[in-house]
Each structure stands twice: as C-alpha cells, then as structure tokens.
Amino acid sequence: MSIKDADISAAHPDFLQRVKQILTPQQILAAASERWAYSYDNSRQQQQPGVVLLPHDARQVSDIIALCNTYKIPLTARGHGTGTAGAAVPPPGGVSLSMEHMNRILGIDPDNRVMTVQPGVTNQAVQQAAAEHGFFWPPDPTSMAVCTVGGNLACNAAGPRAVKYGTPRDNVLGLQFVTATGSLLNTGVYTTKGVVGYDLTRLLIGSEGTLAVITEATLKLTPLPEDKRTLRAIYRDTESAARAISAIMAQPVTPSALEFMDNAAIDMIRDDSRVDLPLQAGALLMIEVDGPAECIAHSAEKIAAVARNSGCLELREAASEDEVKALWSTRKALSPALRKVAPKKINEDVVVPVSRLPELVNGLTALADKYAISIVNFGHAGNGNIHVNLLVDPDDPQQMAAADNCLDEVFTLVLQLDGTLSGEHGIGLVKREFVGRELDAASLELMQQLKRLFDPNNILNPGKTLPGI
Hints:
By secondary structure, the chain is of the alpha+beta class. 34% of the residues lie in helices and 20% in strands. The chain contains 17 helices and 18 strands. It has helices spanning 8-11, 15-19, 32-36, 58-71, 123-131, 149-155, 162-165, 200-204, 238-250, 263-269, 296-307, 321-332, 334-341, 357-371, 397-416, 435-438, 441-454; strands spanning 28-29, 51-53, 75-78, 95-98, 105-109, 114-117, 135-136, 172-178, 184-188, 213-220, 222-223, 227-235, 257-262, 283-291, 312-317, 346-351, 374-380, 385-391. The strands form four sheets. A seven-stranded antiparallel sheet has the order 15-12-14-13-17-18-16, with helices on both faces. It has a five-stranded antiparallel sheet with strand order 5-6-10-8-9. Helix 9 (238-250) crosses helix 11 (296-307), helix 9 runs antiparallel to helix 14 (357-371) and helix 14 runs antiparallel to helix 15.
C-alpha cells in the first residue's frame, strides 16, 4: 500500500505548538521516519499518522484528547501493534497515541486478589508480577510476551485459558478512561460483585478504542493452580477430533486449555516440532487440566476417557516439564511457521458453538477444495474459537479473487452455524464491512447512537469496528 506523508502541522499549524505545552519534545515524534513505525499493526493495513504522541500519564492523555476534539483531529490509541485486524492502524494524517510509556504496575493487593495497571504494561509482565504473590491473570494470548494489557482489553483478547477462566471481560473489575471530550472517568468496582449503574466496564472492553481511551485497569487475579497435567491426543481425522472436543466440554471437568490443529497445521510444523507427530495424524488436540493436587490425576483420567473415541489414534500424557514445554512450543510455533510460508496470509478468527465444530471443519475443508486454496485451521477449540488461515499470495490477482469469494462463504458458514465473526482478534478495519451480516439493523443503529454519544465528533479510532460511521 502506498502511504502519503501527512505531516499534521500542514493541516493544523498551531496544533503541535499546543501539544508542546502538554508533552516534552521526546514525547512527540513528528519526523516521517519516526512516524513510519506506528503506521501499521500485525494486519496488512497501513496508514501514516500525522504525528505520534507518547503520553506518560492519564492527565496527559486527557489533555491530548481534549485538544484533538477541539481541532477535530482523529486519534487512535495503540499498544505494541500485535493486533491482526487493523484496529491499531492510525487515521491517515491524524494522531497515533502510543501508550508504550504508560507501562507501570500501579499496585498489587493479594488480600483482595486485585492488580492495578497502566495500559502499556505487557501481559507477560502482569503474569510475572502476579506469580510472585501466587496468582495469575487468566487472559494469555499467544503474543503475551509483547502484547499489552490495553490491547488485550481493546479486543477482549484471551487465549487458551479462556475455556476455563474466561476473557478480559470476565477478569477486569474496573477501568479509568478518557472520553472524546477529554473527561477523565472511572467505571466498575473494586469488589467481585456490584450492580450500581450501567456496566460501562464491559462496554468499553472490546470496543477497540472507539468509545474512550483506557488509562488504567483494575484486574481480577486468580490463584495459581497447585498442579496441572498436559495431554496430547492424535486423531485419524478432524471430524473425530471435533467429536472429542464436544465430548470433553460436555463432562464435568473443564480443561484449562483445549487446543486444536488440523492436518494441514500439523504438516506445517512437523519438521520443526520437538515432539513426534505421526504421518497419519489427521488432527491433534492439546489438553491441559489444572486444579488441586489431590484431584488432578482423577481429572486427567476423566478427560482422557471421553477424548478416546473410535478415531483416536494415540493419547499421551506429558511425563515431564520438558515434555510439557515441548508440546506448547509446538503450538506456539504454528503462527510463525504460517507467516514464513505465507507472509501475507489471511487470518480469520471465528467462533461457533462447540457442538457445531464438526460442521465448521467439514465446511472449511470443502471450501478449500472448491477454491483451490490451502486453509490451515487451529485454535481454542474448547470455546469453538478457530483461527482460519488462508495461505494466499496477494500478488496473484486470480488467487486473491478466489480468496475474497472463499472468505465470503466462510463467514456465511459461520453465521449459519449460529457463530460469530470474531472471537478475540476484533473487527478493526479488516472485518468492519461484514459486521452488518451478524448484527440486525436495529442493534447496529443503537450501537451507532452509542458511538455518537460517546464521541460526537468521531475522533476516536474512526472507521473501525462499526460500519456506517
């Protein structure tokens, strides 16, 4: 994509002068070479901002947003740019508000199982700090080493543990945020129960910075489990694995992770894997069980019993911590391996009810054959959350035309199965025009009204999440 340089000072000559009254020179990146690094995220979308601003605290965020509202300059908040839907791609010529310097853990309260953080802190830093007190924060995206809590909240991004412990919406008690007019507000509670007022906390989580900019989050922590077991099950075909997933999720013991790979995903990582992956493997499940030490063996046995169906070729429990690490490294190696083979692949993030997974997998196989496109499927099977990867070459017009039609049918299939178009990657720029397929006209209009109420001048991440705005 060709990107025009759009220095903000050309359109708003005195804007930067007023910004300099709020921030130091080191917090303002105005040169084109400096702005370039903030022009994209982990999607293929890219737009050059007019300026990059790096606030240090909530008051600076408030002052910047109030100024942008006065000048009607669009603004997009961002973390480390790991999102795949284009939500962090800045408005061309507008402000990219990087939260990378707001990366402090403000407090840990073990007695109440609470941690308060700024949005630029990484997920991994939160996990490490919580672990020192015997806790963890359940959301664990694959990019946890570099992704930020603010980004996790913006997209409601979770990860493998969501199957048992939930998403950010289930694990955040309250927020501090700045509205489009620059007002600094708080929402939520410091307790695990509370019903006073409307639930703005969960409204803002997942809104991709289109309603407000989060400046602080109060996270709900969970005690680290005493023990865990990790199982690997190999199946003859994807339908057998899908039936096992439904059976596992229908019994009383909830796994702490239930990850799925189809045969194409297995083939992709076979040579680089530290564990043996049989050639006849048609699908793989990674199953993790955690809980009290005295119950863990029984829990693992209960899950293993229902995972062994007629299509199960092998079920093995990791015998050591090294084997556990090898299994998880196999799963986490998949996304980089796909990027290596198809750097500009299309990565979709769909969800269907667990009982409909066999229909989804079979439907995706049929679409791959119909359009002659390699499709690799993996993901958080316990939630029915499958990452559908179309391995395409954007420089091939014929292949891209086929991919557009294929993707259209993928979304149609997902909605026919009572599913949703995004589980944790968000909508951003990439899926915005498909939202009207899932939401009815009345619901969409109500959401557009909410956007106009929160952001009357449409300066907060415009052009993202909802069509028609």
